[in-house]
Amino acid sequence: MKITFLGTGTSQGIPIIGSDHPVCLSNNVKDKRLRVSVLVEWDGYTYVIDCGPDFRYQMLRANCKRIDGIIFTHEHSDHVLGLDDIRPFYFRQGDISIYAHKRVLKSLKKRFDYIFALENKYPGAPTVNINRVRNKSFKLKNLDVFPINGKHDKLQVFGYRFKDFAYLTDMKTLKTREINKLSGVRVLVVNALRIEPHRSHFNLKEALEFIELIKPEKAYLTHISHLLGFHDDVEKTLPENVFLAYDNLRITI
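Structure (tokenized):
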């Protein structure tokens, strides 16, 4: 299984428009972060988790020419606004499969009504195959995927486990039964927004405590804001099995 970090930033990305914060002015490519998303590949299949407003450029940068589907964690703009940019894939492949909680599907139908239209549909609009995700395992081709149910402040959000890999973003709280689903995970990705506490995201301390609870072989931090600090400085402070993810990082599991 190959994982490509398409984006590792928070909702505004880094640099933030008009910001003079030192991290936003950094020349280190690892401090420049698009909105959070990953590409998951195995056995010739390719899936994207979330498609935010940077989706088009992320696909170009990753040289991605085909996707088998998009899996959504939740409906916030930084995770869904790139849905219209599935058109090149649709024109080549036909209908694109999407997977999401019923609430997220309702939101997508409202925001992208022309994509979901059943009558008088604009001929240039893509078409999607809708798959509702419940809090139980579902099949993606030859692989069972396990949703991990958590809360983003008061909003339900799904993380996902693919065999020995788990991806959690925009998490703040998880119940014990959901945490238990992560037992034995070798590689864990989890959000770490900043140093100071935040109402709807793990901060760095909470992310590290969560990693220590799960005990993966390796862990990567994502959904990072400029307030976490410079990439190279923060990484020096982390446990030896924990790393800051950065855009276009590729790992093999």
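The first helix runs from residue 55 to 61. DSSP finds eight helices and 15 strands in the chain.
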